[in-house]
Amino acid sequence: MSSMTMGIIILTGSFILMLIMGVEISYALGLSAVFTCLFMNINLLVVFQSIFYKMANYSLLAVPCFMLMGEFMSIGSMSKNIVGLANVLVGWMPGGLAMVNVVDSMFFGGVSGSSVADVSSLGPIVIRLMKDAGYEEDFSVALTCTSAIQGIIIPPSHNLVIYAITAGGVSIAALYMGGYLSGILLGLCLAVYCFYVSKKRHYPVAEPFKWNNFINALWKALPTIGCMVVVVGGVLFGWMTATESAAAACIYCFIFTFVVERAGTRKDLHDAFTRTIKTIGAVLILAACATAFSWVITFLRIPQMVTAGLFSITTNKILMLLIINAILLVMGMFMNMVSIIYIMTPILLPVVAKLGMHPVTFGIMMILNLGIGLLTPPVGQVLFVGCSVGNISIERLTKALLPQLAFMVVALLLITFWPPLTTWLPRLAGYIV
Description:
The chain folds into 2 domains: 1-42, no CATH class; 58-429, no CATH class. It is globular and about 75 Å long. The model has no long low-confidence stretch (mean pLDDT 82). It is mainly alpha-helical. Helices cover 79% and strands 0% of the residues. The longest helix is centred in the middle third of the chain and has 34 residues, at 266-299.
């Protein structure tokens, strides 16, 4: 048996063994990489240089800024005002509050870029409104969770930033523009489901659309929309980098919440920074260990082996992409999103490139796959937050999620097999050729 083969066995075997033993995934990734390097007689200094090179990326600073911005938004009235605007826009439709749930997540995703922040801040508001209006509890909580996944696709998404850094050479602006139509498509798929269920169960309809109500709601929501303009407009128009726009939006939300509204206290500010530091600390440790793991994967030529192995199964593009989607869906059920991005991007990107798929399309396809994983046990983060916010059991929520997940898979397949959804806007703007 060759040393390369033994290296692959040690890498994968030690990683799986440590996961079974209950070792935290970050340390399992890092230790398995170290064990393999020691066996292969690889200088660990090379691996650590790779980690520091990857972690010193300027764009990575956008991630904590986006997280802190979401914390500031949830303290003041910015979240509530988004719900009010969505209610005026679509509340008059059949199953109006269900539509509101989808649209407010679309707006909030365009500001915070976080599904967990969406469920945590908007969830208590809209779930209570839906339950008071006669909507079933299971349906209300499940829809809050599924609609929140728009937040990781619609800009600004810190997961898209992490993918761009990992893939190398992929424009963050192109990913942002590609995420718009994809996120709207996901929202439309969920809206179709809401319309069908609302008609079938005779859910109530809110008051008819009125221009006065719309103008008032729009006026109140303008600060939140302004934050969206700062984050996304700054990047798309080339005024700022993704990191600069994230920092500017973070300062914007701080000033509006704590100075203009005077909504927060010193304790709120302290708690916001504490939660952000804890979260970003865990993310960075995971990112560093996953970088070491992915470096060893590349050294062992595993991406080339996977490419050859998949093409030995079939050369049919449709079947190949279905297999890749299935792999990502299954991995998303058992692993953290950030770790999968770091591990699977260098493995699968060469495969899809051979199939003619653009890196922007693959990035959004991957993120949506892993977003579905956030809703599935045993490690679905949004699933558990939804259970906590809605005060509902995992079993009940999982059962209610199943039909909605089917509509999300429809959106995933359209994104996978209809490239213009992700490439038309970036190409129109000149970010991709």
